Amino acid sequence: MTVELILRFGAVALVAFLFGSIPVSFLMGKFIYGIDPREHGSGSAGATNSARAMGGRAGLAVGVLDIAKGWCAVGAARWLLVPQATFDRDLMWWAVGIATLAVMLGHAYSPWIGFRGGKGVGVAGGACLAIWPPLFFLELGIWFVIGLTTRYISIASITIACLLPIWAFVFTPIRSTGLIVCCVGAALLVVWLHRTNIQRLMQGQENKLSFGGRS
User: Fold this and answer.
1) pLDDT tens string for the chain (215 positions)?
2) pTM assigned to the model
3) Is there a contact between 8 and 77 (Cβ–Cβ < 8 Å)?
4) Nearest CA among 118, 121, 136, 162 for reference residue 28
5) 38 DSSP assignment
6) Measuring CA to CA, which residue among 9, 8, 213, 16 is closest to residue 126?
């Protein structure tokens, strides 16, 4: 691996992390609703808790913007590594996978709000949309079905995260080893970020889907 390639991978990770670190939920809460969503509900700065703290429209807006962050991060990864992709296609997909992990880490541990944030599902969805749109819509459909059926968004989010590496291998036309490895890492990260939700689920104390309040 050349020095130039190492620098390009580093640039991919840094740019993706910075995209992910934009605290959409916090900024919307502060400048539009006059609240900090992290002080409500689960304390997360993601779309689901934004819906609980600020209402369904705010949660939807945060979710869409989080998806956009993931999409932009992967787009930047492809742009930064285009010369190498001409010679080794798998290198580009390694960069895409690294960008996916980096944007999720930036979202979950934003340095602008004390290394706190959301749980990475929305930005991972945006990465899927940029990588292969059918994968995004498959995951979104499963998320909706499980979320609406169980009313536990955490179960829906953990499920689609665990399915992501499987879909990436079985259905996508890419089947890059690097991308699949990074999808496994993304799934593990989502499970880790939902560890408190898992504990509450086991104790029967997890919040069910409810916009504008707890249920």
Assistant:
1) 688 888 889 999 999 999 999 999 999 999 999 999 989 877 888 898 898 889 989 999 999 999 999 999 998 888 877 666 565 777 888 899 999 999 999 999 999 999 999 999 999 999 999 988 988 999 999 999 999 999 899 999 999 999 999 988 887 566 788 888 999 999 999 999 999 999 999 999 887 875 444 33
2) 0.90
3) no
4) 118
5) G
6) 16
